[in-house]
Amino acid sequence: MSVYEYEVKTIRGEKKTLAEYAGQVLLIVNTATKCGFAPQFRSLQQLHDKYGPQGFAVLGFPCSQFANQEMEDNQAIEQACELNFGVSFPLFARIDVKGPGAHPLFNYLSDNARGVLGSKSVKWNFTKFLVNREGHVVKRFAPNETPDKIVSDLERLLAEPKPAQV
User: Fold this and answer.
1) Has residue 166 been placed in a domain?
2) 166 and 134 in contact (C-beta within 8 Å)?
3) Is 25 helix (H, G, I), strand (E, B) or coil?
4) Total of domains in the chain
5) How far is Cα 10 from Cα 60, in angstroms, rounded to an integer?
6) Which residue in 91, 68, 73 sits closest to 81, CA to CA?
7) What CATH number is attached to the domain comprising 47?
């Protein structure tokens, strides 16, 4: 199984699978526009811009499970990300990332990249999952680990040969 098999909704409500990202290195992040970590949006956008031409994408999944730090309306989320942080990387519809209502994508990510002390559950906004070109999770980064801390792992994955078929 890989991330490419999961169906998601875009921030504008369109259903699609992540298969369109096959062969790319991905950084999947649960986001929240009113979180203290929200300034990371700018750094995430910088990574997306710098490494995008090499086959990299940041995918943002808004979530309000942690201190209710995300807006209810997907359109408002998209506007806040664009206007306040300059986000143009793909954003998806607001979801749950833990508990019984967790989106299956985040169950997969959490099962395959454990957190501190082997914890499975996402603990806060801006938990980041690095995914290789085959669609497999290779590393999890805590919310306080800024995007610049991901660069060496990201560059290593980008340097690996592209798979013949994903």
Assistant:
1) no
2) yes
3) strand
4) 1
5) 10
6) 91
7) 3.40.30.10
Q: What is the pLDDT of residue 58?
A: 98
Percent of the chain with pLDDT over 70: 97
Instruction: Please report which helix (H) or strand (E) contains residue 76, including its range.
Output: helix 74-85
> Catalytic amino acids?
35
Q: Strands of 6-160 (E only): list them.
A: 7-9, 15-17, 25-31, 56-62, 128-131, 137-141
The 10s digit of each residue's pLDDT in 77-114 is 898 888 888 999 999 999 999 999 999 999 999 999 87
Q: What is the DSSP letter of 157?
A: H
Q: What predicted TM-score, i.e. pTM, was given to this entire model?
A: 0.93
DSSP state of 35: S
Q: Identify the residue with better confidence: 27 or 160.
A: 27
Question: 162 with 23: CB under 8 angstroms?
Answer: yes
> How far apart, in whole angstroms, are the C-alpha atoms of residue 145 and residue 148?
8
Token code pair at residue 129: 């999952």
Domain membership of residue 17 (yes or no) is yes
Is 80 among the domain residues?
yes
Which residue range is the domain that position 80 belongs to? 3-159
Residue 29 CA, chain-centre distance (Å), reads: 3
The mean per-residue pLDDT over the stretch 143-148 comes to: 94
